[in-house]
Structures are given as structure tokens and as C-alpha cells.
Amino acid sequence: MNRGKIVFGKIGFNLSGSSKLPETIPPPPPPIDQTTPTPTLHDDTTEPDTTESATSGFGSFGKLSQDNTTASETSPGDLESMMGFSGFGKKAKEFNLDSLVEETRKSAVDRNRENIEKLKLQSLEEEKRKASLPTPNDSTKSAVTESKSQSDEDEDEFIGPPLPPGLKPPKDAGSEAESEEEEDKEHWLPTSHELNLEHGTKTVSSLAVDSSGTRLVSGGLDYDVRYWDFQGMDQSKEAFRSFCPADGYPVNSVDYSCTGDKVLVVSGSQQAKVYDRDGIELFECVRGDMYLHDMARTKGHIAALTCGVWHPRDKEEFLTSCMDGTCRLWHTSRPGSQKNVIKARALNGLKTNPITCAYNRDGLLVACACDDGSVQMWDHRKSFVNVAINIKTAHARGSDTSGLTFAYDNRGFATRGGDDTLKLWDIRNTKTSVHAKEGLFNRFPMTNCVFSPNDQMVMTGTSINKGEKAGKLIVVDRNTWNVVREVEVGPSHVVRIIWHPRLNQVMVGCGDGKVRILYEPKISRNGAVLVAGRHKKRSKQAEVVVSQQVITPHALPMFREERHKSTRKLEERDRKDPIKSRQPDLPVGKAGSGGRVSAGGSTLSSYIIRNMGLRNKVHEEGDPREALLKYAKEAAENPYWVTPAYERNQPQPIFQETDSGMKEEEEEEEEEEEEEESPPSKKLKQQ
């Protein structure tokens, strides 16, 4: 059976042995001569060579002739006769992109033309209606013409599908947008709900929240630092860790690192401490030498610390300020010595003490506010010798500038002064403040100010003044410097504020020892919202069986043991038993009890000594010489203590014997001496 030729692309295969070479195989091209024209490879008149062997299989791998390839592609009948089907599926639909683009362009032009014509018709109708009304004055005419020109411009710029019939373009979009912005500012403040955390009884002087918003750290004037976990806290609202970093020193500042794995605690002592996320101390900064005059020569601070912050980008660097007139940069790898020393100088060139310190948002500026009212900044990329920005009279001299914070755009910063003012500054022009607000009473040297997460508002707190009942949160618009809202926060001072950008919640440290968290359930997330939605855990009473008891069902009642469902009754009964409860001995009465005596001590030895002393006690009645001589005869006859020891070598005692005549002479001499000593009046009486 002769099946003919099969062609797969450019490869041909001849199944019949007697057939000639396929027409698709061209003859080899002749050598090209430059003088003669190049012949065509496949010509209609060219005939294939018939002298070649008929058993050749595959064809040429080169280019096929255009006529043969088209013939092989456009012969469905041959393909159906050879392989049994006419093709390999449906032919793909072809699209002309140029024509499609042209059609869409024309349709868009037509739609816009119709829309513009409709708007022109509406404007003509409005002009006719206004023309029928009485003519207004010149000012109204000018306003109408201006509004018409603006509407015409808006109509010309209008692009899009046509408006539905009866719908007109919006008017006064600017005024509506401004009113909406004011409403958004009012609604964006999370002050509708409040959650209280009990820190202690004294003022909460420092607060810090990690970047994720899961943990809060608070420090107060009661010398304690407390860790709060929003994820694991219930309605009991208890801190999971509390410790005292430096006994006797208030906590002036706490701050989380940019990664949230370390906490810097700055107390009133000379040494700052760094703790981990769970409140375990990692290291303590070294203390400097107070006897050195040059503060750059010491390895650490020598006076009370005032503030401390972490670098916003580097998790290993932090900054501290001190009453020794310096700010010091530290690195966690070298707690034994500071990295850099910054000396703050007053207007007269002498040293001044920094009250607070801060980095800007990208960490390129190091700033501090001093007790002489100045604000000084240094470039972090250069040496800290020359001041980059120096505002000499930012606040009143001698007042404690308690707050210094930078805006999120790094173009401005705000300061909270001890002179009861809040000022906004432009970092590009620091000669004068952009805005200033006075009359904000401040009693604490750690009252701060913060920017809102959208960078459009500034918030600060006030202390309770005479005649007031509560401290206030003052929210000021950054652009107009108008007070957006005043919120009274409990019957206490407002000292420390944090407005977290991720949680959209305001944490306030108050003067009554409470941390008040303000939030709005609709616009706030996590944090206090999680705690408010939880219930207090119920304490389960532990019921434990003391011992396993095997009870036989047919045992007599006299042999049964009591089954205790709880240990409470068993403990009460054991408490009455002095042996099981190990009850201490009661004090002894006068008569004594339990084998113990009351007099002469409570031990047996003291009792024996007392009785021996009573038994051998010598009564002091009569002459003591006679009492001793009473035992002389017994001691001479039965010596027991001293005499037997010296019996062999002790000589016999020899006493002097006196005569009677000598005794009489002695008595007469004594009488004469007495007479001589007696007074003369006594002698006359005797005569």
C-alpha cells in the first residue's frame, strides 16, 4: 500500500520505495559568480534529479521553497487521507490591535462630545434663568462671572462618562472639604473610652510602648518600674513584672529600642540600666570619676540623670543626659565607657545642665533642652564639638524645658517649657518660633508633648492649678495652632503622654499613680481594646485527695475510713492537733507544766543549779568567824581539799607564844594613849 509522503514541518519522509525524491528537496546551489546573476534556488521550470536513489528517507533541514511549504500547509485533503483527521484543532482567532485602538478612541471622543454638549446646554439654561431675575449689584456680578468662568473651566476639563439626567456637577467643593477635614480631626481623636492601670500611689513620671504595641512599661516617683502585656492581660489589669532599678531614686525616663527587645531605664542615680523585654537586667552603665574636672575624661556620668532615649534606627545605641552638663552616647557592646561626650554650653560659655534629650526621626540630629532655656542640636555625622543649631532663648531662663519632640516629617519640632508655654519650631528657620501657646500650667520637669500619627496635631498636658479640679489634654492644630479639643483626664495632673501611631491610642501618666489609656473602638486597634473585651479569670479551688483509699463494699462501719472530698476539713482537724501542726510550746505559768518549771529557767540544767545554790547557801546569821571555826575541828580531823596535797612536804606551823606580863604592859600603854587623845574637858570630869 502506497501511503505517499509525510511532512512534519521542514522534515519530509518518503514511505514508498520506488518514488522519487520529494519536490521539497532543492538541488545544491551552484557556486556564486560575481559576474553572472544569481540564479533562483526553486524555479517552476526546474525539475528534480531522477538519478538519485529512491530509498533516501529524510529531506533537507534547510529552507523549503515557499510554494511547496504553502502547498503542504494548505492541503487538508492529503492530511486527512494520510492520518485520518484534517487538522490539529481550531485555528486561533486573529485580532487587529490597530483597528481596536482606533475604535476605542473614536468612541471616547464621541462620548466626551456628547457630555460637553449637555453641560453647555445646562449652563445656557442657567444663564437664561438668571437673566430673568432682577439685576444684582456689581460685586455679585463679578462673583457670578468668576463662578461662571470657573464652572466653564471645570466643564472643559471634565472627562468621563456622561452624568445621569437631573444630576448636576458638585458646587462649593472647597468649603465642604474643609468642613469634612475638621470633622475628621474631631473624629480621629481616640478619647471616647478610658482604661485605667494601677501603677502605684505616686506620680507616673515615664512611659514607653514598643513599636508593635503589645507591651507597656511605666516608671514612677515610687522608684518602681512595671511591665504590662496587653496580649495576656484581663480585666484584673495587673502588671506581669515589677522591680526597683535603683532604690531611693525616682524613675525619670524609660524607652524601648527600635526593635522592642531592650528597655532603657534612667533613674535619678548616676548609672543607667538596660533590661530585656521580660525585665531581666542586661547591664549597667559605668559611673564616672567625680574628682576629674574635664567631663570628657570620665567614663560615665557623675551626677543625677535626667533623661534617656534610644536611637530610632540603631538598636545598639542610646543617649543619656545628666546634671553634670553633658549628654553621652552609649553602645550596648561597651557599657564600661561611653561612645561620645557632648558638652552643653550656655550663652556666656559656661556649662549648662540638659533637662531632656532626643533624636530626630532619622537619627541624624542629637538635641537637648537645657535649664537656661536654650535648645541645642548637633549633627550625628560630625564631631560633637560645634553646635549645628542653637536656639539660645527658646524658653525662659531658669525654667525646666520638660519636652522636646520632632515631627514625623523631620521639618519641625515642638518644645514644652517650664514657663507654661508650648512652642512649634521650623528646623529650617529657628530664629523665632512658628507658633506659641501660653497659659499651660506645668508643675513637673518631665511633662512632654507629642505629634499625632498623621502629623497634623500636637498634644500636651497640663497640671492642676489653683481653682482647677483636673488636669487636661490639650490638642492643638499644627497649621492654625487653634485648640481642637480639651479633655479632662481624671482628678490628677497630666505628666507623661504617648500617642502610639499603630494602635491609635493615647497613654497618659497621671499624678495619682494611674496610667490612663484613651481609645476609640472604631478607629483604635489592639492594646486597650483587647483588654476591655476580656473577662476576669475565675480562680478555681484546688481540690486534691490526700491519699488513695481502697474501700470494700461489704466492710463493717467500724473499719471504714472517711472519704474526704476536699482537704479543708482535714486541715482544720490537723490544725487542732498540736503534734501534726507542730504547735510551738506555750509560755510557762507560775506552777510549771509539761515537765517544765517556771522559776529559775525553763531547762533542767538551770533548775539543778538553782536548787544546788539554795541547798548550800550559807545563812548570814551570827558571826561569820564562828561559822567558819565551826568546821575547824572537822577539817583538822578529816582533811579533804588542801591539807592532804601538801601533807608530806608542808612544814609544821610555829606560832609565837605571848606571856601574861607582856600582855599587861601592852594594855597599860594602850590606856595611856587613849588618855592623851581624849579632850581636856573629859580629863577634868574624871578628876
TrEMBL record:
Polar residues: bias regions: 52-75, 134-148, 649-659
Keyword Hydrolase annotated: no
Ranges of biased composition (kind: Acidic residues): 175-184, 664-678
Residue ranges of WD repeats: 197-238, 394-435
Keyword Transcription regulation in record: no
Basic and acidic residues compositional bias, start-end: 559-583
Top-rank lineage group of the source organism: Eukaryota
GO (cellular component) term, any one: nucleus
InterPro entries assigned: WD40/YVTN_repeat-like_dom_sf (IPR015943), WD40_repeat_dom_sf (IPR036322), WD40_rpt (IPR001680), WD_repeat_GAD-1 (IPR051858)
Annotated TM spans: none
Similarity-based family: Belongs to the WD repeat GAD-1 family.
This protein's name: WD repeat-containing protein 70
